[in-house]
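Q: Please design a sequence for this.
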């Protein structure tokens, strides 16, 4: 990037990139020439290198009107203009081009930083003394008072005076050209920088899009891999669990205490592994969008009580009190009963898992009116909309709690608050991620409230329609 910008800077600082039209303000030139003529009485013209007139007097000089009244006057004007534009001149060696009645034009080159940009023409001016180098036929002025008065309007100067005026004019234009050069250079460098930045941004966007497409493909392959592996693992695992149950029931004969203990461990770990595989399958379906909801009327209060009854043995085993309560009458909710049950099971199991002995877990279901949570719709829409009714399910525990800076991350797949090798509580880190996706599929929201000094409160809001 640095080399390309240095190259651009070198190219821009070469004056050959600019013309006189680029350096001088075409709108300001007429005003400058008018001020010069008012100050000195001498009109001036500025021509570009291609002989184009950039600026000149606002009106034709009286001398031109005089020539128009004489035979071959227009031809003489054309010849004079041709000579003015073609005569060889330099900054230090201007040329005098005489036209008629002892009047003429002083022509000089206009350059900047040693490079020719155009030419300056002062006049017409009448010389007070004879000039050298005029070879044309002198036009004699007829005895006409009006013509004499018109000719008197042509300023009369000596050649040194004209050269002084020319140097003054050249310096003025040189200052303007230098200012224009700086402005044009700054503008060109800015445009070049913008183009270079745009090119770099385009390249980065192309690379970013390529990386994004690659990540999407890898994510798709990962989901397909999880789904395939999980499906292939579930079939033999089901057989392992089934045969371990039959052995425990004594189908193949009586078992001693040690054998029953070993088979019990095999059965328990098989069930845990089966739950993990089911979670992986659910996650892959949710990520790929292939999971469909079988919606119907659901009594969320009854569902909470059923979950509490189901998990009561687990809570008793840990010496944790588990209770479910319903505040007021609830409308039936239009949702997938099986998936809503899965949401409650995951949240409640999680609460029991992270609550120490003699702790408590409470499931509360109630109907509330609330504003839309920030981030769901624009703030202007919130101000103009009424409160909405939602069925709010709260799962509160008195466990170890979740640090505030990790409350959003716990909904990421495979994320563990304590991911050390010595953590006391196991788990795959998929439960809350599945909860989040299932709640989103029901157009609801799930978030964590603080429960200082200890504990966690998970809140699931399901909008009533």
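A: Design:
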């Amino acid at each position: 990037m640095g080399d390309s910008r240095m190259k651009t800077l070198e190219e821009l600082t070469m004056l050959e990139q600019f013309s006189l039209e680029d350096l001088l303000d075409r709108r300001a030139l007429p005003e400058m020439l008018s001020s010069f003529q008012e100050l000195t009485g001498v009109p001036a013209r500025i021509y570009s290198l291609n002989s184009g007139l950039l600026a000149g007097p606002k009106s034709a000089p009286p001398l031109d009107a005089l020539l128009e009244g004489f035979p071959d006057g227009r031809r003489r004007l054309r010849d004079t203009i041709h000579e003015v534009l073609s005569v060889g001149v330099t900054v230090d060696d201007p040329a005098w081009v005489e036209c008629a009645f002892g009047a003429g034009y002083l022509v000089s080159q206009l350059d900047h930083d040693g490079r020719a940009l155009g030419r300056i023409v002062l006049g017409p001016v009448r010389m007070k003394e004879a000039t050298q180098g005029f070879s044309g036929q002198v036009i004699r002025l007829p005895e006409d008072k009006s013509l004499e008065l018109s000719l008197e309007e042509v300023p009369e100067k000596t050649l040194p005076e004209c050269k002084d005026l020319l140097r003054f004019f050249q310096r003025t234009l040189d200052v303007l050209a230098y200012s224009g050069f700086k402005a044009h250079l700054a503008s060109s460098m800015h445009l070049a920088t913008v183009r270079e930045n745009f090119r770099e941004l385009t390249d980065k966007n192309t690379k970013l899009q390529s990386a994004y497409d690659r990540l999407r493909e890898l994510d798709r392959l990962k989901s397909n891999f999880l789904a395939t592996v999980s499906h292939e693992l579930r079939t033999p695992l089901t057989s392992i669990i089934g045969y371990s149950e039959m052995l425990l029931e004594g189908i193949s004969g009586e078992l001693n205490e040690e054998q029953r203990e070993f088979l019990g461990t095999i059965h328990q770990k098989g069930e845990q592994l089966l739950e993990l595989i089911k979670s992986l399958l659910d996650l892959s379906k949710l990520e790929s969008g292939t999971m469909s909801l079988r919606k119907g009327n659901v009594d969320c209060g009854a569902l909470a009580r059923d979950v509490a009854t189901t998990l009561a043995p687990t809570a008793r085993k840990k010496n944790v009190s588990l209770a479910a309560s319903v505040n007021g009458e609830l409308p039936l909710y239009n949702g997938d009963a099986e998936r809503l049950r899965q949401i409650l099971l995951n949240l409640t199991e999680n609460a029991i898992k992270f609550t120490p002995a003699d702790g408590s877990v409470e499931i509360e279901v109630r109907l509330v009116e609330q504003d839309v949570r920030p981030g769901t719709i624009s703030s202007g829409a919130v101000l103009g909309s009424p409160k909405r009714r939602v069925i709010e399910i709260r799962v509160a525990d008195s466990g170890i709690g979740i640090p505030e800076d990790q409350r959003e991350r716990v909904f990421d797949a495979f994320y563990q608050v304590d991911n050390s090798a010595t953590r006391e509580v196991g788990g795959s880190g998929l439960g809350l991620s599945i909860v989040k996706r299932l709640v989103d599929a029901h157009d609801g929201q799930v978030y964590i409230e603080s429960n200082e000094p200890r504990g966690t409160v998970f809140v699931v809001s399901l909008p009533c329609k």
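Q: Thanks. Anything notable?
A: Confidence is low (pLDDT under 50) at residues 12-16, 130-138, 374-383, 419-424. The domain at 295-463 is CATH 3.30.565.10 (Heat Shock Protein 90).
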